[in-house]
Task: inverse folding
């Protein structure tokens, strides 16, 4: 059995079940038409997938760690990130509680993006 | 008969795809990675492989948690290019090898008791395509080898154990060797090495662990077959658990296979490893 690891989310079935609505929404973003629909009317898009108010609020606030904790798998989160103009490193900086520049300064070769 | 001529363990970092597409491979930050593959491609050209079996994981491009297989094998004549949410890369469809896929499926299920999910359609994405870009670049005539996707659940726990992945590789070798046609086959184990993409530990890398993993892969893969997901995730980050797919590759080449190339580069958030074996 898995034990908790500090500052780390382990995506297991409990998280997957909790995040099922969020992950289905993200999954739809693999279609160009759905990405356009999301960008056109985020609220309607979220309602279509039956998100709870708390889940909707996480997307409105672009609270990426909150979305992870609510059961969004990281590889699904990348799709919301992309649709909202937040690449992996921007989301990562937010999850670390740093600015993008602060985060980049911690990297070995920051040009490899 | 079929013959596994080589195994390659390599990272499948998604940002490599656009770097290839936009011809940025000579930029100083990327050149060390791409230079490492020049001798690998020369070596592969000498081995003349017909088929690459690519052990990879889908990142929610074509598989979803509504139904999520532990091991899924492509059994088709060709594989489409998937859209992961960032648009479809302009790459030719990947030719498959249906006869070999069908033989592998029958052999793995009947003889070796690996109850695979068999897929007549898989749209492949960066987990599969980045290793293809690096080892078997396409030209105007398409891809230089046929390829078979073998998708592993490394993202929704419970995952298959490292030992199960290693045994799958051994079974793959035995299955290939009973294929009636003469075929040279390369097995690629992809993903990793150390990385974590969420939580306060976002960006965690551990070169010491990665080098140890490469050492053991060369010297004593049975040690790695007994490694726990917990240990990999604690040492190398939650997403580093993809490394169990390298064990399928290692199991598929002979235990006495010679290590040919080895490289490591960790510029941003992932320890990008490369190791090759010749049977």
Result:
């Amino acid at each position: 059995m898995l034990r908790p690891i500090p500052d780390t989310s382990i995506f297991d079935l409990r998280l997957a079940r909790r995040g099922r609505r969020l992950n289905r929404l993200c999954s739809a973003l693999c279609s160009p038409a759905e990405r356009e629909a999301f960008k056109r009317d985020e609220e309607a898009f979220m309602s279509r997938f039956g998100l709870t108010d708390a889940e909707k609020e996480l997307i409105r606030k672009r609270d990426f760690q909150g979305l992870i904790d609510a059961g969004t798998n990281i590889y699904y989160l990348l799709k919301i990130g992309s649709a909202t103009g937040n690449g992996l490193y921007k989301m990562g900086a937010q999850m670390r509680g740093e600015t993008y520049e602060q985060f980049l300064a911690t990297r070995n070769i920051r040009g490899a993006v | 008969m079929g013959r596994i001529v080589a195994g390659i363990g390599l990272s499948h970092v998604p940002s490599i795809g656009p770097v290839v597409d936009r011809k940025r491979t000579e930029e100083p930050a990327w050149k060390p990675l791409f230079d490492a593959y020049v001798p690998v491609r020369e070596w592969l050209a000498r081995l003349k492989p017909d088929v690459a079996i690519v052990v990879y994981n889908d990142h929610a491009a074509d598989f979803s948690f509504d139904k999520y297989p532990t091991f899924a094998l492509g059994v088709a004549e060709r594989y489409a290019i998937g859209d992961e949410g960032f648009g479809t890369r302009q790459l030719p469809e990947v030719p498959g090898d249906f006869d070999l896929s069908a033989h592998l499926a029958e052999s793995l299920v009947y003889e070796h008791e690996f109850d695979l999910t068999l897929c007549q359609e898989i749209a492949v994405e960066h987990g599969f395509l980045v290793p293809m870009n690096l080892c078997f670049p396409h030209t105007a005539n398409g891809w230089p080898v046929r390829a078979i996707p073998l998708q592993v659940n490394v993202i929704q726990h419970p995952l298959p154990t490292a030992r199960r992945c290693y045994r799958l590789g051994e079974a793959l070798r035995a299955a290939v060797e009973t294929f009636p046609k003469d075929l040279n086959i390369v097995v690629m184990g992809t993903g990793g090495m150390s990385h974590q993409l969420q939580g306060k530990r976002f960006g965690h890398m551990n070169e010491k662990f990665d080098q140890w993993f490469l050492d053991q892969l060369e010297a004593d893969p049975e040690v790695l077959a007994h490694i726990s997901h917990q240990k990999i995730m604690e040492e190398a980050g939650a997403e580093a658990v993809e490394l169990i797919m390298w064990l399928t590759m290692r199991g598929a080449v002979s235990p006495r296979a010679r290590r040919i190339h080895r490289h490591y580069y960790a510029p941003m958030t992932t320890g990008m490893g490369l190791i090759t074996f010749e049977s």
